[in-house]
Here is the input.
Amino acid sequence: MNDRQRINIAAFLRALATGMAGVLLGLHLARAGFSAAAIGLTISAGLIGAVVALFVVTSAGGAVAAP
Here is the structure.
């Protein structure tokens, strides 16, 4: 298995985990009695946080790897 395949598998697993977390969080919050709007805002905030974290890590990695 080469590096490209490992990166693709890791990206797939990360996306799968993010999607499952969103679904499970939505189900949990719905059972706890939260409104649809509150559930949507909570999941949106989590996804935005994941995007920001990914951007920061990618930027930092690019800065470290650049000669």
